[in-house]
Amino acid sequence: MKALCWHGKNDVRYDTVPDPEIEHPRDAIVNVSSCAICGSDLHLYDHFIPAMESGDVLGHEFMGEVMEVGSEVKNLKVGDRVVIPFTIFCGECEQCQRGNYSVCERSNRNKALADKAFGHGGAGLFGYSHLTGGYAGGQAEFVRVTIC
Ligand SMILES: [Zn+2]
Ligand SMILES: [Zn+2]
């Protein structure tokens, strides 16, 4: 697929990258129809936010159509139109149960790194550096959306 990839400060390229695949039974693959560009993307573009890696797919706010769902996904089906916020959350951990989705305890697979950088790491985010889990974003044809 084609995607906008970060390669360094002020260096974003339109690359060909592997199509995303279901990696977890609670994943879905979304065919992206639109993706926002916001001020937070500029923090990546100017490399204000650390822990970006060459080839990271940008785009943290996107929408599209569900193409494929994992075996444990109960609330989505192929063909559904969806809007994806950048925050990834499980809905089950203590913080999610309190409604504090932005500090989900399970979705940031690099939480220890984020704790060091920010004092307290937040949830995983799409398209937003390895401090927030290193998840590929939506400035792409397809995205693996995870419910972790
Ligand atoms: Zn944003
Ligand atoms: Zn959670």
Question: How many domains comprise the coordinates?
Answer: 1
Strand order of the largest sheet: 6-5-3-9
Query: Which CATH class applies here?
Result: Alpha Beta
List SSEs in N-to-C order.
EEEHEEEEHHEE
Itemize the secondary structure elements and their pairings.
Elements: E1 2-8, E2 11-16, E3 27-35, H1 39-45, E4 56-57, E5 62-69, E6 81-84, E7 87-88, H2 94-97, H3 111-118, E8 124-125, E9 142-146
Antiparallel strand pairs: 1-2, 1-4, 3-5, 3-9, 5-6, 7-8
Bound molecules: zinc ion (2 copies).
The site of one zinc ion has 4 residues, from loops.
Report what the structure shows.
The protein is of the alpha+beta class and 148 residues long. Helix content is 13%, strand content 30%. It has one domain: Alpha-Beta Complex (Quinone Oxidoreductase, Chain A, domain 1). It has helices spanning 39-45, 94-97, 111-118; strands at 2-8, 11-16, 27-35, 56-57, 62-69, 81-84, 87-88, 124-125, 142-146. The protein has a four-stranded antiparallel sheet with strand order 6-5-3-9, with no helix packed on it. Strand 1 (2-8) and strand 2 (11-16) form a beta hairpin. The chain binds zinc ion (ZN) (2 copies). The site of one zinc ion has 4 residues, from loops. One zinc ion binds next to loops.
